[in-house]
Amino acid sequence: MMTGFRLNLSPLKEPLGFVKLVEWLTAIFAFGSCGGYSGRNIISLFCGDGRNETLQANFHYPFRLSQVLLIKENTTICNHSVTTTHLVGDSASSAEFFVGVAIICFLYSMVALLVYLGYMHVYKDSDFGPIFDFTLTAILVFLWLVCSSAWAKGLQNVKDAVDTDGIRSTLGICKGTNVTCDVTEFANMRSLNISVVFGYLNMFVWAGNAWFVYKETRWHSQKFSSPTGPGRQQVPAPI
């Protein structure tokens, strides 16, 4: 069996190779729109005497909000002494899980494309290649579902923590005083919303690709063939 590299671009014209290329691109958009994010909310505090003060809530991937400092120790705001205050919440696990799955899929798509374009003769000559490809693809479909759902919930937690209601519940000065707290400038979270969309899109793309990979396995070929023997005629597989 020849195992040398043989460049053949024809798999890109077939669903097996073309969908893998799409998976590679969608994985880039998934981790790129989430992993490099940073945002800032401006919080305005309206003091009872007519003065206004502002705070900044700067947050970024992986969204360990409990480490984001809002107010330093013993700061005076609106004539009130305020202790050290941080944002509330931690969405790091869901964000890192999402980005991790996206990076794994990005790398696996590159390796699979290399095999399809240069070693397809080896891939089809053995049962191991297609079966391994199908099994891993099915696992990644499940991981996309789990990580996208987890990150969607984590993103909602981030939004809740940095909106006006979340800030008011975090800052003690906003409760039981004549100080009114409002978020007057919101960070643009469009890319984070897009990352969730790409997460679920990846799940559907990988699920569709699982079918084309399955057709390369012996399980599919055995399903459409009948045993031959004395008195039996082989039935050709349907096209």
TrEMBL record:
Any one annotated GO CC term: synaptic vesicle membrane
Q: Which organism is it from?
A: Sphaeramia orbicularis (orbiculate cardinalfish)
Q: Which gene encodes it?
A: sypl1
Q: How does it sit in the membrane?
A: Multi-pass membrane protein
What name appears for this protein in its UniProt entry? Answer: Synaptophysin-like protein 1
InterPro entries, alphabetically?
Marvel (IPR008253), Synaptophysin/porin (IPR001285)
Looking at the record, the residues that make up the MARVEL domain are: 11-218
Keywords annotated in UniProt:
Glycoprotein, Membrane, Transmembrane, Transmembrane helix
Q: What's the family?
A: Belongs to the synaptophysin/synaptobrevin family.
Subcellular localization, per the record? Membrane
Transmembrane spans: 21-39, 97-119, 131-152, 192-214
Q: State if ATP-binding is listed as a keyword.
A: no
